[in-house]
């Protein structure tokens, strides 16, 4: 318990530093915020316009397709808010700075995976959550139970996102490449902007079982609309647990291979 | 001329030195094309014609715009911002070749490789999924497609340069570039053909340089002829001339006030 409190204090401290760093340049902060909002608004408008004209997208109405999209954004932005440090990890490896982190008396992942919350993405996440709450409430056809399952599966998605980011860190130690692997992860997850049902086989199975983007981005909304079976949900949670265990194992393996590239 | 050929060969050698980077970049582009392809396939599931496009025309649009965008948007000009900020640009001014010629040569190789790989990827997709695509047999359309694509390249090159030239006055170069990426994604027709939008919005977009990057060339392949072709041709030439003039003006103005210690 005492250790947990200590870790939380470190997390708070790192988040405070992250906040100061991110807001050092107000212009950049505002411009990036505007850019992300423009991207969201454009996609939102596009999906609305497209599905409103076609009436349905793989059986989903306009409102439902938009909730899929907003849910994707919630998971994506929370992951970015929590794991922004992963994007800076390469520099830490090639400069040898990682050596000094390894000797610190706290879990290394606390520093290299989380390293403090990104304030901009946190702010954006709050906006998305409020919007999703409003939209789900406005549809009116969602039970309290499916609401709870929806939140539970979003948490499950964050477990998967954590696993992916840990795997990227492990990959970075072995190859010193972060930029492309994290961007490939982001490209793959971007398939979740739309309901998984739009993808035909074998891509759909690939996105569900090989790279579990479907479980991560589609399952919460599917549960909300009652198109996800209990079996599928259980498989989704099981896969997440397996994936996080495998990525932690891979992380430990990569640490054993670490040779202090630049130190 | 021999000097620029040498620059081409050095740039090519750089790409072969970082093969994995290039392969991973292409993998990302391929995946992004697959997502768009499946999205439109799902949209056309229960409709013959939508927004004035048949399924075959829309899939042709997705595939062809992928190839053209690979050619038009690939560029090495973002490096210039860093070179201005770190003072390296001064070295270029002392060398016996044109600064713009140097970056055009580098861009040429970048575009050549990207378009070659885009074509291979499109053929892989076509071999795997066998979509019905629209074949234009009019040599005039092919000629206009080629000419407008080259002009689109020049417009994109100029705007990319202008964004990098921000570094003459401010270190905040990434946020404007990020905004530019997002605007290009939507306003150049990367995700959907622009003429599916309401007419007023579409006409407004035609007043910006974005549609001339690759939307107009792709539409010419799909059947713009006569006065339409002439009108869009004139507009493309207008943007080419005006952006070239602005680039030279900003470059001269930026250099006049530029200084860097230690060089």
What is the topological layout?
The complex is a heterodimer of chains A (263) and B (263).
Chain A: H1 2-22, H2 26-54, H3 62-82, H4 89-95, H5 97-102, H6 108-114, H7 119-139, H8 144-175, H9 179-189, H10 203-210, H11 213-224, H12 230-257
Helix pairs in contact in A: 2-3, 3-7, 3-8, 3-11, 8-11, 8-12, 11-12
Chain B: H1 2-17, H2 19-43, E1 49-50, E2 53-54, H3 55-73, H4 78-85, H5 89-94, H6 99-129, H7 139-165, H8 174-187, H9 199-205, H10 211-222, H11 226-256
Antiparallel strand pairs in B: 1-2
Notes on the protein architecture:
The complex is a heterodimer of chains A (263) and B (263). By secondary structure, chain A is mainly α. Chain A has one domain. Helix content of chain A is 77%, strand content 0%. By secondary structure, chain B is an all-alpha fold. Chain B has helices at residues 2-17, 19-43, 55-73, 78-85, 89-94, 99-129, 139-165, 174-187, 199-205, 211-222, 226-256, and strands at residues 49-50, 53-54. A two-stranded antiparallel ribbon of chain B has the order 1-2. In chain B, β1 (49-50) and β2 (53-54) form a beta hairpin. Chain B has 11 helices and 2 strands. The mean pLDDT of chain B is 86. Chain B has one domain (2-256). Chain A binds chain B through residues 25, 27-28, 31-32, 34-35, 38-39, 42, 46, 49-50, 53-54, 56-58, 175, 177, 180-181, 183-184, 187-188, 190-191, 194, 197-200, 203, and chain B through 20-21, 24-25, 27-28, 31-32, 34-35, 38-39, 41-43, 45-47, 50-51, 170, 172, 174-176, 178-179, 182-183, 185-186, 191-192, 196-197.
Radius of gyration of chain A: 19 Å
Secondary-structure-derived class of chain A: mainly alpha
Care to count the β-strands of chain A? 0
**Number of helix segments of chain B?**
11
Output the structural class of chain B: mainly alpha
Span of the ends, CA to CA of chain A: 35 Å
Shape of chain A: globular
Q: What coarse outline of chain B follows from CA principal-axis ratios? A: globular
